[in-house]
Design goal:
Phenylalanyl-tRNA Synthetase, Chain B, domain 1; alpha+beta; 3 helices; 44% helix; three-stranded antiparallel β-sheet; 3 strands
Length: 71
C-alpha cells in the first residue's frame, strides 16, 4: 500500500480545524485511510508529520495531490 507523508499543521489548516490523534485516525478511517504513525521532527522546530497508509481511490488521490501541491 502507498504511504503518504503530510505536514500536520498545513493539513489541519487546509481542513479548517485541528484534530487529536484519535480524531484524525477516525477521520482517516471514514475515508478508507489508515493512520500509520505520527512522527515528530528530531529538530523540534519542524511540525510533526502524519503518515497515512491507504488504499486510495482516484478521487482521494486527487484530493491528496491537491493538498500536497499547496504544501
Amino acid at each position: 500500500m502507498p504511504t503518504v507523508s503530510v505536514k500536520r499543521d498545513l493539513l489541519f489548516e487546509a481542513l479548517g480545524r485541528s484534530y487529536t490523534d484519535e480524531e484524525f485516525n477516525d477521520l482517516c478511517f471514514e475515508f478508507g485511510l489508515e493512520l500509520d504513525e505520527v512522527v515528530s521532527s528530531v529538530f523540534g522546530s519542524l511540525p510533526p508529520v502524519l503518515k497515512a497508509l491507504a488504499n486510495l481511490d482516484s478521487s482521494i488521490r486527487m484530493a491528496i495531490g491537491h493538498i500536497l501541491n499547496i504544501l
